[in-house]
Amino acid sequence: MKDPQLRAYVPFIGPFDPCKPLPIRTYLVTPQLFIPFQPMGWPQYSPAEALRVGTLWPALYSPYTSKKSKGREVEVDGT
């Protein structure tokens, strides 16, 4: 399953780079970047669940998964 919040790109690799470059760089895009304002009447987690996941609104929930996790797929931007 592809993680919709994970993005990747291929950096420029110059012929005279002193260190071995990483072929693919990844970064996370958080959900709040795509929500311009908070609409009224959004569904909310219960207070106990909100403390567990770190946000009151399910639309803003962004689970943490390790880069070493085997369940993450990455597609490179621009290819």
Short description:
With 79 residues, this protein is largely without helices or strands. It has one helix at 47-53, and strands spanning 6-9, 25-28.
**What is the succession of H and E elements?**
EEH
Rg from Cα: 17 Å
- How helix-rich are the residues, as a percent range? under 10%
Average residue pLDDT: 81
Q: What are the low-pLDDT stretches, counting only 5+ consecutive residues below 50? A: none
Number of helices: 1
Strand line-up across the major sheet? 1-2
Q: Which structural category fits the helices and strands?
A: little secondary structure
Q: What shape does the CA trace take?
A: elongated
Our estimate of the beta-strand percent is 5-15%
Q: Based on DSSP secondary structure assignment, what is the total number of beta strands?
A: 2
Largest sheet: 2 strands, antiparallel
Give the end-to-end Cα distance, rounded to a whole number of Å.
Answer: 19 Å
